Amino acid sequence: MLRYDEAAGLVVPARLPNGYRDYEPVAVRQVEEIRALHALGLSVQETRPFVECLAGGHGAGDECPESLAAYRHAIDELSERITRLARRRDALATHLEVAAGKAMPPSAATELTRLPSGLPVPSDDGAAAHLTGLRLPSITLPATPYSRPCS
User: Fold this and answer.
1) Cα 64–chain centre separation
2) Which domains does the chain have, with CATH numbers?
3) What pTM does this model have?
């Protein structure tokens, strides 16, 4: 990752005669800043104002106006993405509702509590007698998007 940051021009070491890289003391802080910003989801290019702020002698990468603008820009992009994703979710939910209505017409949904006529009466063989009074565990039904635990 350090070479990638170097190739992007974020951390620029001097070259010693033997070809080794010689980093300034601020480079360690710059690399830490880059890693922290990556953890927040900022791209390599979005970290540039923070690195430059540190290179300018500031104690923290977000003490410069350009860094604050980068924060705002990242937040604005996230807000736009969240809005687009919410619209997509709502559109998918609408399509699901319509498709579910095609698969099970409203009349069928209301008939779920009534058995069809003409079914034979089952005989009780006593195999479930031990279940009487047994407490059911709390469960969530994952097949329904808005399910609540049953108890």
Assistant:
1) 29
2) 2-89 (1.10.1660)
3) 0.54
